[in-house]
Amino acid sequence: MKKIIYILLGCAILTSCQKADDNGDLGGWWKLLQIEEVANDTIIDKRNEDSFWAIQLRMITTFNGGKGRFQHIDDSLFIQMLQKPLDGKAVGMYNPDNERFKVNSLNSKRMVLQSEEVILTFRKF
After folding, report:
1. Which of 8, 20, 23, 107 could form a disulfide with 27 if both were Cys (CB 3.0 to 4.6 A apart)?
2. DSSP string of the chain?
3. Domain 21-124 has what CATH class?
4. Domain spans, the chain
């Protein structure tokens, strides 16, 4: 009987130590569909490329080696890359040191972010 109590207590302690992801619709894998460069009205189609952002806890990871932290405050997404992506423009980060995006649209299936340089359109993967 004591063994069962110790096992249950151990399981409860282990499961209570996990951090909860409180990102809501923002959390998960996002496939970059399109980059619209604001300055020259150029649209770059990314649907056939493997351009992904992974968002979990307070971390963001890009498919090409970028890793950083972010804060989602009201209608803004602030990103600070700790490890810069190999090609920031390939994932829509034209200023990977400290990027600020306005969240134009965010739900469980679609996200549209806008910075001074680009408008990024994603779909949940």
Report:
1. 23
2. -HHHHHHHHHHHHHHHTSPP---GGG-EEEEEEEEEETTTTEEEE-TTS--EEEEETTEEEETTS-EEEEEEETTEEEEEEEE--SSGGGGT-SS-SSEEEEEEEE-SSEEEEE-SSEEEEEEE-
3. mainly beta
4. 21-124
